[in-house]
Write a structure and sequence with these properties.
This protein is an all-alpha fold. It is built from 3 helices and no strands.
């Protein structure tokens, strides 16, 4: 995911993005959130897109790719027995300023989940 967002950032800053491997997943999570914050800053600041890139192509390219990867990760979690609980994302507490690892609990989680793993309980508000 960091590489996809890093590629998207090159549309604002130029160059290429080839990240070095990191020793731990925790380090990668930190790098991902830093990349997300930097890309968010370029979008918020209205930084100009380079090399003929358009907002539409950015959405259809790297942003759509990132959303596809999010779906793939959800599917892999389900296959591994650790599925993402269902919730109403329309009601989610989404903020463009909150791009770090500290995210709010689901705003409107499903109370009934027939396929839930044993012992699953919906988060309490």
């Amino acid at each position: 995911m960091t590489s996809v967002l890093g590629y998207a950032r090159t549309c604002f800053v130029g160059g290429t993005y080839r990240p070095d491997p990191l020793p731990t997943l925790a380090d990668e999570i930190v790098r991902f959130h830093a990349m997300l914050a930097d890309l968010s800053r370029h979008l918020s600041d209205g930084s100009p897109l380079l090399d003929g890139m358009t907002a539409e192509r950015l959405l259809q390219g790297p942003f759509a790719d990132a959303m596809t990867h999010a779906g793939q990760l959800a599917m892999l979690r389900r296959l591994a027995g650790a599925p993402v609980p269902p919730e109403n994302f329309i009601a989610a507490d989404i903020s463009a300023e909150r791009v770090g690892p500290d995210q709010p609990l689901p705003a409107d989680p499903d109370r009934v989940w027939d396929e839930a793993p044993p012992g699953w309980r919906p988060p309490q508000p």
